[in-house]
């Protein structure tokens, strides 16, 4: 299977406030996975953080289909 799979279980910004890094904790077939998103812009990282925190429990494919053009 290819593409965006799994369910978002938890997300968190890097504990170092100077790093624009965000962690995604997902499960797929009861197996946990961790991924990270790296940003050049701390404000945009916070924006994505706010959005993802409201999407806990959703399928990654649903989250991947969000229209985020309003954040640009």
Can you walk through the features of this model?
By secondary structure, the chain is of the alpha+beta class. A three-stranded antiparallel beta sheet has the order 1-2-3, covered by helices on one side. It has one domain. It is globular. It has helices spanning 42-53, 60-64, and strands spanning 7-13, 21-28, 31-38.
Task: Supply database-style keywords.
about 70 residues; alpha+beta; three-stranded antiparallel beta sheet; 3 strands; about 25% helix
**Class by SSE composition:** alpha+beta
Overall tally of structural domains: 1
Q: What about the largest sheet?
A: 3 strands, antiparallel
Count of distinct strands: 3
Count, helices: 2
Termini gap: 31 Å
Q: Which of globular, elongated, flat, extended, rod-shaped describes the shape?
A: globular
Reading the helices and strands in chain order gives EEEHH
Low-confidence stretches: none
Rounded average pLDDT: 88
Spatial strand sequence of the major β-sheet: 1-2-3
| Helical content (DSSP H or I, runs of 4+) | 10-25%
Radius of gyration: 12 Å
